[in-house]
Amino acid sequence: MRRLKQRPMRDQSRDNQIERAIARAFNNGGRYSRRAFLRRAGRGAVVAGGALTLPSILAACGIRPGASGSAAPSAAGMVGGGDTAGNLVFANWPLYIDQDEETGESPTLQQFTEATEIEVDYQEAIQDNQEFFGTIQPALSAGQDTAWDMIVPTDWMVGKMIGLGYLEQFDVAASVPNFVANAADKYKNPSYDADNLHSVPWQSGITGIAYNPELTGRELTSFADLLDPEFEGKIGMFSEVRDALSLALLHNGVQPKDATEEEVRAAAAVLEEQAPLVRGYYGNEYAQELANGSLAATMAWSGDVFQLQFDNPDLRFIVPEAGGILWIDNLTIPKEAKHPNDALAFMDFVFQPEIAAQITEYVNYICPVPAAQEIIRAHAQEATDEGDQETAEYLTSVADSELVFPSDEMLSNLHSYKVLSEEEEALWNELYQEITQG
Amino acid sequence: MAGWLRRHGGLIPYLFLLPGGLWLVVFFVLPMLTMASVALQEGTLGTGFRLTFNVGIFPEVLGRYSEQFLRSVLYALVVTGLTLAIGYPMAYTIAFRGGRYKNVLLLLVILPFFTSFIIRTISWKFILADQGFLLGTLKEIGILDDGFRLLATPIAVISGITYNYLPFVVLPLYVALEKIDYKLVEAATDLYASRRQAFLRVTLPLSMSGVFAGSLLAFIPAAGDYINAELLGGTRETTMIGNVVQTLYLTNNDYPQASAISLILMLGLIGGVLLYTRALRGQELTV
């Protein structure tokens, strides 16, 4: 039986808001915060004291270099084509797969095990790209097994790990045929991983602008609206350097992935000039400020706004005229993984439209399989026939949302992060820290 | 064993110190040494860090982040003053006028500790939100201008820190005041001291140990606080040195700079505390 998570009621009380905010701050699922908030926590600035985990502290003590300079990926060793081992150790972000309300089990994982006889050891081990990287980097740089067969880094981290020679290669056409058959073109041959030699997308989302028309008094269209002195003290920005500088680069007419140092400095100058108007530089807590009316316009992640709209249907999310960012989290196999064939089997399994739809109905991120949209519509119709109006409405809103199934027009205006070298990363961080913290 | 102890009885006090001493070595001394070592290294996460004894890093970060250092000290001083101003009358009332409600009142003081302070700080965000029930109401009845806000200002940050550390000040003040023999105050008034004189010359000097302990307990954590600055501030103008360390460690992976700042902050606080102790020497500081 298909069971959907409970949706927040539109007229929810202040108590619920508080409860949600707390769940959000603690990175810990409440009934109302099933999805985005938790996962998002890792992307932006970390909210609470929980940030100083053992791995990050250990990483701080580590003196070991990342990888030898010559660690370019070897052309020879591709994985795939062999027998599965019956085991898959899978590290994912919290609440990033479907989950049955009653049993807590994931139908997708159960069906995968039934179909392939591969047992999945599924762990919500990734809270933050950098931090998770810190936990596996010592093993990878020593050429050892990380204990994971499959991990889910964001696109720029995929690029970084490829550069360090930390990801296994595979022949996507031979090993993941469902990807080739069913994924949207936008996800094929991405800039961070040519020919999908190391990765296939899991879920993705958009970095754009959200606003509250009641407070702005007009519709917004571009990043220039976030530079408007009229909204002084009501503008929110991300503390995440890649998102913020990329939007500013696009505003200046520069493709983030081609940005030169000069262009990055020019983009930083735009943000420096904007700084006096900005109310704050936020991690995932921007969503709360937008919801409670403290922010009129803010940088935003599509998934959060999709959920906030259940409480406040007036909130809008736009891709700025000059372009937004499509970030993609990917299924990848770390070097020396013990069960690469099992990981490939899973990748192929989830690119079946029916399975992709099942996951999307739960997580509400952008689904890389366009055919899932019609399947979700069909599920909505089934629910209507069964008389379950609430579920039907919910499923219809998922299938109809541009934030879950973006139109081609929207997709054509979305761009990728730049994969930064270490020097570039240091420069970006330094430039942005001067803007956000002085 | 018993015989050994009898022969080496002088060692017993050291044995008692052993667990605490080991604890401090493992969880304080070693991390301190690591931090000092990391501060003197150069490199990046990708190429690794090497110990180069780069002492130049200390003046470098001190110059680069002087504004945030000064802001932290300033905020901490204001917070200390506020907590004393609010906490002293509270502790005084509980100690001398609490009567049979003393324990209840003390419980109320520490009651907030039963919830995580992050939850309490987030609740502040709701109370102080631009359209929240405090400001929203005041705006609606026209007392406040529509654009007025408290969140994301130094006022919110300082208030938040003050609130969070208030109990740390009230408790030592209470302990100091509570053990004052009230007969001394009565004796002073019997000898024609006004109430004001009795307070200034008897009660206050006798409670200085509480003022000393309370002010340190407020000042030291306040100077290193970053949660309040992040949740209630979040702007460039409210960035404290703790936020800088957090960003350097977790976002920029610039471990040497972050370690150097932490060391400077710690040594600065130790120096400040020593000066403070010296300034109060001669007062009755034994608890």
Architecture overview:
The complex is a heterodimer of chains A (438) and B (287). Chain A is of the alpha/beta class. Chain A has a domain at 205-326 and 414-437: Periplasmic binding protein-like II (D-Maltodextrin-Binding Protein, domain 2). Chain A is built from 19 helices and eleven strands. Chain A has helices at residues 14-26, 36-43, 54-61, 107-116, 129-141, 155-163, 172-175, 177-182, 213-216, 241-251, 261-274, 286-291, 302-311, 340-350, 353-363, 372-386, 389-400, 408-412, 422-437, and strands spanning 78-79, 87-91, 119-123, 169-170, 199-211, 235-238, 278-282, 297-301, 316-318, 324-332, 414-415. In chain A, the strands form three sheets. In chain A, strands 5, 6, 7, 8, 9, 10 and 11 form a seven-stranded mixed beta sheet that branches. Chain A has a two-stranded parallel sheet with strand order 1-4. In chain A, helix 10 (241-251) crosses helix 11 (261-274) and helix 16 runs antiparallel to helix 17 (389-400). The longest helix of chain A is centred in the C-terminal third of the chain and has 16 residues, at 422-437. Chain A starts with 13 loop residues before the first helix and ends with a helix. The model of chain A is unreliable at 1-17 and 23-75 (pLDDT under 50). By secondary structure, chain B is mostly helical. Chain B has one domain: MetI-like (MetI-like fold, Orthogonal Bundle), CATH 1.10.3720. Helices cover 72% and strands 3% of the residues of chain B. In chain B, a hairpin with a 3-residue loop joins strand 1 (41-44) and strand 2. Chain B starts with a helix and ends in an 8-residue tail after the last helix. The mean pLDDT of chain B is 91. Chains A and B meet through helix 1, helix 3, helix 5, strand 7 and helix 19 of A and strand 1, strand 2, helix 6, helix 12 and helix 13 of B.
